[in-house]
Amino acid sequence: MITITCVVVLISISVVRRAKHILTKNDQTEFFEGTSTRTHSNADNNRNAYHLMKFDADKFEIAKNEFQFGDSKQKYVLGEGNFGFVYKVKVTRFDSEVAVKVPRDGCSRQTMRSLLCEIKIMSFVGDNDNVIKFLGAYTKEIKTGILFIVTELCTMGSLQTHLQQMGRNTKNNMASIFPQLFRFCFEIASGMQFISEKGVIHGDLAARNVLLDSNSVCKITDFGLSRKLYQYQVYTKKQQEDLPWRWLAIETLKRLEFSTKSDVWSYGVTLWEIFSFGDLPYPGISWNLNFVVLLSSGMRLTKPEILSPNV
To answer: Which region is the signal sequence (predicted)?
Structure first.
């Protein structure tokens, strides 16, 4: 009898923990109904129009029973991060498999708010050949941390990984791959121009955040500065090394200032990655505050080996 009682208690505790409300009522209202423009200046409205939007459930909501995860989600993991996991999933309404981002169990309120912001940004930006396509989301249980974000599936993975494979496989035939490398540069620039014209700052452009579809076309992903600002602020206070400092502009490292200009800086570092076949920028350098001093004094990335001295 005591054993049965203990089991019941443990199950009850587990259910309570899972059902705990992660988001406040205001968080949910802001996502589903949008934010009043009266609380923002005109400048803020122009810069952050996606924050003011309400989630278009009629267009983007996907029923939970449409997701076919199968018996074991682990078989279909495409990647993972601090936020959670990305799975390859079949969703009933789509002809082909899609990518589904799912937060970890027990995720924080800040993580959920960031992911909801990502949904707003992607739906606001819209379709472009070189930007990852947002297809929809399951949002009915966001208050308890359950959320599925659906995007197109890029079967060739990240540009960074692809570049590293190219570097290993084509070292004796460099001339033949230059057209492809230049195409990557052009496609990323095209996608970034589109994002910029929408008034959205990427904030974390790098080869790892560019995906390749089945035709090897670049798709910019993981964009939207406000989704990451909290982590950057925590970094500044704790001086941890998980900030993507190798790709950030001087003003970003000094004052957390993000703009189209800082995105251009990151694009320059991404170009270096492309022509260095996915190598790590500033190799041999570890993070410390002196890195910012060196950048401010004129230190820059060295020329990739495959480029001519005139570059």
So the answer is: 1-18
Does the active-site annotation cover 56? no
Delimit the domains of the chain by residue range. 21-151, 159-296
Superfamily of domain 21-151 in the CATH hierarchy: Phosphorylase Kinase; domain 1 (3.30.200.20)
pLDDT level of residue 137 (50, 70, 90 thresholds): very high
DSSP the chain: -HHHHHHHHHHHHHHHHHH---S-HHHHHHHHH---GGGS-HHHHHH-HHHHPPP-HHHHB--GGGEE--S-GGGGEEEE-SSEEEEEEEETTSSS-EEEEEEPTT--HHHHHHHHHHHHHHHHH--BTTBPPEEEEE-TTGGGT--EEEE---TT-BHHHHHHHHHHH-TT-GGGGHHHHHHHHHHHHHHHHHHHHTT---S---GGGEEE-TT--EEE-S--GGGTHHHHHHHHHHT-S-S-GGG--HHHHHH----HHHHHHHHHHHHHHHHTTTPPSSTT----HHHHHHHHTT--PPPPTTS-TT-
> Which positions make up the binding site for ATP?
101
Known binding-site residues equal 101
Please determine, for residue 5, whether its predicted confidence score (pLDDT) is greater than 90.
Answer: no
Q: Which CATH class is domain 159-296?
A: mainly alpha
- 159-296 has the same fold as 21-151: no
Which one of 44, 204, 242, 263 is the catalytic residue?
Answer: 204
Checking if the pLDDT of 12 tops 70, the result is: no
